[in-house]
Design brief:
Elements (H helix, E strand, L loop, with lengths): L1 E2 L1 H15 L17 H17 L3 E2 L2 H4 E8 L4 E6 L5 E2 L1 H9 L11 E2 L3
Antiparallel strand pairs: 1-6, 2-5, 3-4
Length: 115
């Protein structure tokens, strides 16, 4: 399975945030498709859930996501707030990031996950 560029950037940034606690992992650091703030959060949560499902990151959903309102059909969630400081990289994610050659956090190609 491949991670798209955004997912790869997010994974590397979660790794960096865990290794350097003064470096925050925040939604504002990413260029998302959606323009509306609520939809941006739902889109961001969608990508985080994918990374968690792949076993690359770990978090307790109730600690990371605040949910309210109408569920997005596109992103299958009703997230209204995200606490990025509660998201951590898992051992599988660490191995993937450390094995990936990147410079200056610029993604040159997609990360491929061997399952």
């Amino acid at each position: 399975m491949e991670l798209n560029t955004l997912e790869s950037e997010m994974l590397i940034d979660i790794y960096d945030a865990d290794m350097m606690p003064d470096m925050p992992f925040e939604i504002e650091n990413y260029k998302l498709e959606e323009d509306e703030p609520k939809k941006k959060k739902q889109e961001f949560a969608f990508y985080l859930k994918k990374l968690k499902t792949l076993g690359l990151i770990k978090y307790e959903e109730r600690e990371v996501f605040v949910k309210d309102g109408i569920r997005s059909n596109k992103y299958n969630n009703s997230v209204t707030a995200i606490y990025g400081n509660k998201i951590h990289i898992d051992s599988k994610g660490i191995k993937l990031v450390e094995g990936y050659n990147y410079s200056n956090s610029e993604i040159k190609e997609k990360i491929i996950i061997n399952q």
